[in-house]
Amino acid sequence: MKFNDVKYIIQKYPNRKSPGYDLITAEVAKYLPKKAIIHLTHIFNAILRLSYFPTVWKFSSIILFPKPNKPPDLATSYRPISLLPFFAKILEKLILKRILPSINENKILPDHQFGFRQSHSTIHQAHRIVDAISFSLEKKLYCTCVFLDVSQAFDKVWHHGLLFKLKQFLHPSYYLL
């Protein structure tokens, strides 16, 4: 990690994001002196060198948002949101900035994956589907669509398989974090 990268990520971080349990906001972090950012850069580099993510940065504050039109007495009527410590989020953004070129170059994510990708929205995916249907109709071809919504998909990820894939594509300092 370089000083300029750390400073840039901090400066570009949205002010309106809620802080984690550390109560550090982007507004406050943007006023850090140069020396503090230099120390932070050294800490981030040590984390990568040692492949050790600080335990204290793994804790989060969890707040519950009610889902619309759901009974308030059911636990399933709420969406949990984890608020992570500010510097953990900055490190995540720095790591993403480093590994994203490799992810794109090696085509780790398929072109038709639109979730959690920059410049890929559900609107783009809807256009892609409409274009495929329109093409089929123009050519008088059959067009079959299957829509799959996997509930709690993140919770059901096959972690051993995911780690195996990450190990194939990522540098060990990122994989081991």
Can you tell me about this structure?
- This protein folds into two domains: 3-105, no CATH class; 114-144.
- α1 (3-12) crosses α4.
- It has helices at residues 3-12, 26-29, 34-50, 86-105, 122-138, 159-169, 172-175, and strands at 61-66, 78-83.
- It is built from seven helices and two strands; from the N terminus they run αααββαααα.
- A two-stranded antiparallel sheet has the order 1-2.
- With 177 residues, the protein is mainly alpha-helical.
- It is globular, with a radius of gyration of 21 Å.
Produce the secondary structure layout.
Layout lengths: L2 H10 L13 H4 L4 H17 L10 E6 L11 E6 L2 H20 L16 H17 L20 H11 L2 H4 L2
Antiparallel strand pairs: 1-2
